[in-house]
Amino acid sequence: MAGPGGDMQWCFSQVKGAIDDDVAEADIISTVEFNHTGELLATGDKGGRVVIFQQEVENKNLPQFRSEYNVYSTFQSHEPEFDYLKSLEIEEKINKIRWLPQKNAAQFLLSTNDKTIKLWKISERDKRPEGYNLKEEDGRYRDPNTITALRVPILIPMDLMVEASPRRVFSNAHTYHINSISVNSDNETYLSADDLRINLWNLEITDRSFNIVDIKPANMEELTEVITAAEFHPLQCNTFVYSSSKGTIRLCDMRVSALCDKHSKLFEEPENPSNRSFFSEIISSISDVKFSHNGRYMMTRDYLSVKIWDLNMENRPVETYQVHEYLRSKLCSLYENDCIFDKFECCWNGNDSVVMTGSYNNFFRMFERGQRRDATLEASRENSKPLQVLKPRKVCTGGKRKKDEISVDSLDFNKKILHTAWHPQDNIIAVATTNNLYIFQDKVN
Amino acid sequence: MSEQGEGMRTLEEQQEMEDKVISPEKAEEAKLKARYPNLGAKPGGSDFLRKRLQKGPKYFDSGDYNMAKAKMKNKQLPSAPTEKAEITGDHIPTPQDLPQRKTSIVASKLAV
Q1: Three-state SS letters, A133-182
Q2: Is the Cβ of B45 closer than 8 Å to some Cβ of chain A?
Q3: Burial (0-12, 13-18, 19+ Cβ within 10 Å), A249
Q4: Is B59 within 8 Å of chain A by CB?
Q5: Which residues fall within 8 angstroms of residue A410, CB to CB, at 6 or more apart?
Q6: Where is this region: Disordered (chain B) (predicted)?
Q7: Is residue A260 a contact partner of residue A211, using CB atoms and an 8 Å limit?
Q8: In Å, how far are A132, A135, A145, A149, A156 from A142, measured between CA atoms?
Q9: A278·B32 Cβ contact <8 A
C-alpha cells in the first residue's frame, strides 16, 4: 500500500475549502458521504449547509487522471433554532447525511441536525418553456384582445440549473440529540437514533414514527450508557445494530417484537478486569459502527482502535487494528483537553478488503485486511501538488526520532480527521480536515 | 499484627508500581488522580452521561438567547444598519420595516 510494490498508492487529486488558518465555526465539516454510485459527494457543515460535488465525465484522453469532483449544488439545510421549553439552542450543525438510492431523474438525501431530519430533492433543470400565448417573455400578461394567432410553446435548452428543495421534514420525534440516520434496504423506511432512543420512519410520512428502541431508565440517576450510533443491515431489512458508550453493539431483529429493547445478539469483547482504569470505559465508547457492503461483518471504532466483527460471533471481534496506540500513554492530557471524547468515523472500501479511519495531526489510517498491511497518510496543503503520491507517515513513540518521523508530543491535536468516505466502487477517498475536503485517488487505475 | 499490616501494604504498593510499568493507562490514571484528587470514582457514571445528554449552554429564556446571538453577529458584522432605529415611537411599524429573523446566508467556502 505504501511505496513501490504495494498494491495501492494514493495520490492527491483535489482539495476544497479556504486556505487561511482562521477557521469560522460554520465552516467546520461535520459529515461526508458518497452516494450509491459515487458520482455525487455530499458534505455537511456546522453552519447547517450542504455542498454536493459531482464527478465530471471521465476524460478518456488522460487515462491516469481520473475525473474531478466539482460543485453541483449547495443549500442551507438546517438553521439554528431555539427550544423555548428547555431554553436550549438547537444547533444547525449537520450531523449526518445519507443518500437514498436513485429511483428517477432526481436525487434524494436525508440530512439531520440534533432534532430534525429533512428529505431533500436535488433535481436538474436544463430546459425552459418559451412561446407562451398569454404571457410575454418577461412574464407580463398580454391583453387577450391583441392575440390574433396561437402558437405551441416549445422547450428550449438553458444553462443547467440544479435545484434543491425540502420534500419532507421529520420533526419533534427526538428528545435527545440525533447521532445517526440509516436508510433501510427496503427503500421505504429509515431509522433515526438519539442518545437514548431509536425511531423508525416511513419516508412518506412525517407526522408519525415508531419507537423501536428505548434505553431510557425510569430513574435518570440510573443512567449508565447511551446509544452512540445505529445502522440498518445493508441487505436484511429487518436487522439493525446500535452501539453504546460502554463498547457494546446490539443487533436487533424487528420481526421479533415491535419494541426491540431486547437484543437478538450482543457483541462485546471481554475485558481483563485487572487492566481496568479510569479511562477504560471512556476509550471503549464506540463512536461509529458500519456494516460491510456484503453484510457479513461490521466495523466499530473506539478511541484507540478499529474492530471488525463477524456477525456470527458475539464474544470477540475477528480483527482489531490499532489506530494510534501511542496515545495510550497520553490519556491524562487527552482527557484534560477533551480530545478523549472525539468521535472518529470509519469506512469500508467497495469490496470490504480495506478499512479507513482518521486520527490527529491530519493523519488518517488504512488497514488492508487480507494483507495485514497498514498505512498512515497525511492530508495537508504541503502534499497537494496534482497527482503527488502521498508518502507514508510515521509517529515516533520514544527513543531516537528518525528523519521523517514525528514525535507524539509534536502532534497537533486540533487537526483531527473525524470524517472520511470511500467511493462505493473505485479507489477514490474523501477526507475531511477541520474545514477542508481532500480527495485522493489510487495511482493505478 | 502491625508487621502483617506493613507487609500487606508493601505488597499493594508493589502491585501499583508493577501496574505503572505494565500499563501506561494506569500510569495516566495516577497522573489524573494526582491533578484532580476530587475526581469521582465512576467516570462513566450518570453525572458524566447526563452532561453529555444536555450539550450546549443553557439560556435563561429566548430573549437571552437572541441577545447572545446578536452579540455574536455584531462581532462578525460591525456595520449594522442604523436607519431602522427611527421606527420605534414615530409610527406604527409594518412587517416590511421589521428586521428579518433569518440570518443572511453565507455560502460555504467549499462551494467556491
Answers
A1: CCECCCCCECCHHHCCCCCCCEEEEEEEEEEEEEEEEECCCCCCCCCEEE
A2: yes
A3: buried
A4: yes
A5: none
A6: 1-27, 73-112
A7: no
A8: 10, 5, 8, 13, 21
A9: yes
User: Residue A72 carries which side chain, given as an amino acid letter?
Assistant: Y
Q: Which chain B residue has the Cα nearest residue A91?
A: B56
Output the nine-digit C-alpha cell for A128. 425552459
Residues of A with Cβ-Cβ distance to B43 under 8 angstroms: 278-279, 281-282
Q: Tell me what pLDDT residue B84 has.
A: 45
Please check whether residue B9 touches A, CB under 8 A: no
User: Which of A89, A226, A245 has the CB atom closest to B56's CB atom?
Assistant: A89
- For A329, the closest chain B residue by CA position comes to B24
- Whether residue A120 contacts residue A165, with contact meaning beta carbons closer than 8 Å, is answered with yes
Say which amino acid occupies A307.
Answer: K
Band of pLDDT at residue B83, cut at 50, 70 and 90: very low
Q: What amino acid is encoded at A176 in this protein?
A: Y
| Residue B82: all three cell numbers together | 442604523
Helix (H, G, I), strand (E, B) or coil at A197: strand
The reply to whether B106 touches chain A by the CB within 8 Å rule is yes
* pLDDT (0 to 100) of residue A42: 98
Contacts with A91 from chain B: Cβ below 8 Å: 56
Is A422 buried (19+), middle (13-18) or exposed (0-12) by CB count in 10 A? buried
Whole-model pTM: value is 0.87
Q: What is the DSSP letter of A35?
A: -
Which residues, in sequence order, are CB contacts of A55 under 8 Å at separation 6+? A38, A39, A40, A41, A67, A68, A69
pLDDT in tens, A392-410: 999 998 777 888 899 999 9
Cell numbers of A9, please? Answer: 498508492
Q: Which residues of A touch B69 (CB under 8 A)?
A: 80
Cβ contact, residue pair B65, A335, below 8 Å? no
- For residue B72, give the nearest of B61, B83, B80, B60 by alpha carbon: B80
H runs (alpha helix) in A310-406: 331-336
The per-residue pLDDT for B16 is 62
Could you tell me which CATH number the domain at A10-442 has? 2.130.10.10
